[in-house]
From TrEMBL, chain A:
GO terms for cellular component: periplasmic space. It comes from the Bacteria. This is Sulfate ABC transporter substrate-binding protein. Belongs to the prokaryotic sulfate-binding protein family. Pfam families: SBP_bac_11 (PF13531). Residues 1-22 form the signal peptide. GO terms for molecular function: molecular carrier activity; sulfur compound binding. Its main location: periplasm. One of its GO terms (biological process) is sulfate transmembrane transport. InterPro entries: Sulphate/thiosulphate_BS (IPR034408), Thiosulph/SO4-bd (IPR005669). It is found in: Periplasm. PROSITE patterns: PROK_SULFATE_BIND_2.
Automatic annotation (TrEMBL), chain B:
It comes from the Bacteria. GO terms for molecular function: ABC-type sulfate transporter activity. It is a multi-pass membrane protein. The complex is composed of two ATP-binding proteins (CysA), two transmembrane proteins (CysT and CysW) and a solute-binding protein (CysP). Keywords: Cell inner membrane, Cell membrane, Membrane, Sulfate transport, Transmembrane, Transmembrane helix, Transport. Pfam families: BPD_transp_1. It is found in: Cell inner membrane. Part of the ABC transporter complex CysAWTP (TC 3.A.1.6.1) involved in sulfate/thiosulfate import. Probably responsible for the translocation of the substrate across the membrane. This is Sulfate transport system permease protein CysW. The gene is cysW.
């Protein structure tokens, strides 16, 4: 093929991509939801067509929650975001003016259709005898957790450890000392939860992985239960990964109706069942009862009651110069 | 000079060194080669074929893999020709003309070699991102550069800019400009001179540069990762697709796609070897004349 013909073909194919007529929906999500949304997207498409609509193409992008929020702010044209925590979606309002400030009140349950929590994944037989948070700060125990700057799961991990230490030892100073000791035991900070899981599961690094409950169950399922087991600590945090329509993008693309239907379907019985099947805790009480046996009973603190919400917790702990920087960089 | 006391025999003996040392060195080289290069390649292939040829091919023919392959070839197909034109122009400027700031130009051509690819990607986010320098203008005309094909192509171009120019500059400097001057004196136009004198002289060096440039463009990960947005089936190139598959516990598919990249790399390696031998042959005939 001659050069000019090749370039013409290349140009034609990009123009073709640009003018594709069918509606597309881009869901920018965080790391561990890959399997959840690949099943949910197929189910939603069926539901959408059964209501008399044209089939839609649903595109997925996954990565560390903070990194994904940054990409949407920088111009990645997400119709909906389904991120790991409200703090990251708040940034879309603060830095990008892409959504209104009260975005979280637009959908039921503070826009959080499913929840999760933080548990420990240890190697089979639990050779280090890890039972609770105190065992993670023992000298010589290697803890794997991602970077709280880029990963949402990592921030839930951090806050769960903090809540445990504060309740047990009684003060913020003691909690900071505890968390500092814990992070001294972390040999590597990956950018996202899935990266940390791969580090622990495939590369065999570390004694314990702090993980989303759903991510820990998935690792057990994918890699077989012969090599790992889940340990539920005495106290953890209710991890609430919310969802939102990105107003500015759906207005430009004319996909608001589709995007709203997509997120609302997460609250339907089928959406809730798919979430539970992928080890997320459903909000719907009936569906939750069906899957009750699957999840360990845990004492859970919440971001709103115990940390005064992400608007307070994010700058206090994770922004530049916050507590994480102080303990990790020694600033 | 005392070297006159050495005979030819002494020199060749000194060059050979002790036979045991020589064998040890050669063995060491082969061992290092086997351990660091051959073994990983074999691991990739054996992992890819672990579940048989069926799974291997189904991983390659899966829709996301095909679209990643298409995107990679498209990005290479756009960025390599542009770099070819730029490389020839830059090498021509540097080797045929004398001007102020020439050494700065030569240094700038090498910039992408010394800048981390991640920085290269971030530069484009800062320029063309929604919050970036041109963000508002692009927004107004609804033009998307990053998280789309243009961004991926730009990042690839940035990373591979030096290859063609770097290959041609020493070659063209070595050849000097007498032949071109002769052509002009005999009445050739600028284009005639370029097509009939310059291009035949630099042909094999040019091919070598293009081959290296293609190899690098195909394998680029860091810069493209920053500007891609990671939309599956749309803005994932082959190297990004390999990472995604690996992160989804889909090891066999990840290694299958990796071995596809490996196959492309081997083809490029053969092309490189072939053009290199042509360059050497040209050099030898030039020396004999």
């Amino acid at each position: 093929m001659s050069l000019s013909r090749f370039l013409a073909a290349a140009l034609a194919s990009t123009l073709y991509v640009g003018s594709a007529a069918a509606q597309t929906l881009l869901n920018v999500s965080y790391d561990p939801t890959r399997e959840l949304y690949s099943e949910f997207n197929a189910a939603f498409n069926k539901h959408w067509q059964a209501a008399g609509n044209q089939p839609v193409t649903i595109q997925q992008s996954h990565g560390g929650s903070g990194k994904q929020a940054r990409a949407v702010i920088d111009g990645l044209r997400a119709d909906v975001v389904t991120l790991a925590l409200a703090g990251d979606i708040d940034e879309l309002h603060k830095l990008g003016k892409l959504i209104p400030e009260d975005w979280q009140s637009r959908l039921p349950e503070s826009s959080t259709p499913y929840t999760s929590t933080i548990v420990f994944l240890v190697r089979k037989g639990n050779p280090e005898g890890i039972k609770d948070w105190d065992d993670l700060v023992k000298p010589g125990v290697e803890v794997i957790t991602p970077n709280p700057k880029t990963s949402g799961g990592a921030r839930w991990n951090f806050l769960a450890a903090w809540a445990y230490a504060q309740q047990k030892y009684g003060s913020e100073e003691k909690a900071q000392e505890f968390v500092e000791k814990l992070y001294k035991n972390v040999p590597v900070l990956d950018t996202g939860a899935r990266g940390s899981t791969i580090t622990f599961v495939n590369n065999g690094i570390g004694d314990v992985l702090l993980a989303w409950e759903n991510e820990a169950f998935l690792a057990l399922k994918e890699e077989g239960g012969d090599n790992f087991e889940i340990v539920a600590p005495s106290l953890s945090i209710l991890a609430e990964p919310p969802v939102a329509v990105v107003d500015k993008n759906v207005e430009r693309k004319g996909t608001r109706e589709l995007a709203n239907a997509y997120l609302n379907y997460l609250y339907s019985d089928e959406g809730q069942r798919i979430a539970a099947k992928h080890f997320y805790r459903p909000r719907n009480q009936e569906v939750a009862a069906e899957f009750a046996k699957q999840f360990p009973q845990l004492k859970l603190v919440t971001i709103d009651k115990d940390f005064a919400g992400w608007k307070t917790a994010q700058p206090k702990f994770f922004n530049d110069g916050g507590i994480f920087d102080q303990i990790y960089l020694g600033e | 000079m005392t070297s006159t006391t050495l005979t030819a025999g002494d020199i060749s003996a000194a060059r050979r060194g002790s036979p045991a040392g020589r064998i040890l060195l050669i063995l060491g080289a082969y061992l290092a080669f086997a351990l660091f290069l051959l073994l990983p390649l074999l691991v990739v292939l054996s992992e890819a074929l672990k579940l048989g040829l069926g799974t291997f091919f189904s991983a390659l023919l899966e829709a996301d893999a095909i679209s990643a392959l298409k995107l990679t070839l498209l990005a290479v197909g756009i960025s390599v020709p542009l770099n070819l034109v730029f490389g020839v122009a830059a090498a021509w400027c540097v080797s045929k003309y004398e001007f102020r700031g020439k050494s700065i130009l030569v240094t700038l051509i090498d910039l992408p070699f010394s800048v981390s690819p991640v920085i290269a990607g971030l530069i484009y986010v800062l320029l063309f991102g929604a919050q970036g320098f041109f963000g508002e203008v692009l927004e107004k005309y609804d033009i998307q550069i990053i998280f789309a094909l243009p961004g991926i192509v730009l990042a690839t171009i940035f990373v591979t800019v030096p290859f063609v120019a770097r290959e041609l500059i020493p070659l063209m400097q070595e050849q000097g400009s007498q032949e071109e001057e002769a052509a002009r004196l005999l009445g050739a136009s600028g284009w005639q001179m370029f097509w009939h004198v310059t291009l035949p002289n630099i042909k094999w060096g040019l091919i070598y540069g293009v081959v290296l440039c293609t190899a690098r463009a195909m394998g680029e990960f860091g810069a493209v990762s920053v500007v891609s947005g990671h939309i599956r089936g749309y803005t994932n190139t082959l190297p990004l697709h390999v990472e995604i598959l690996y992160n989804e516990y889909n090891h066999v598919a990840a290694f299958s796609v990796a071995s596809l990249l490996l196959g492309l790399a081997l083809i490029i390696l053969l092309l490189k070897q072939w053009s290199e031998s042509r360059i050497n042959r040209l050099r030898h005939t030039a020396e004999e004349e």
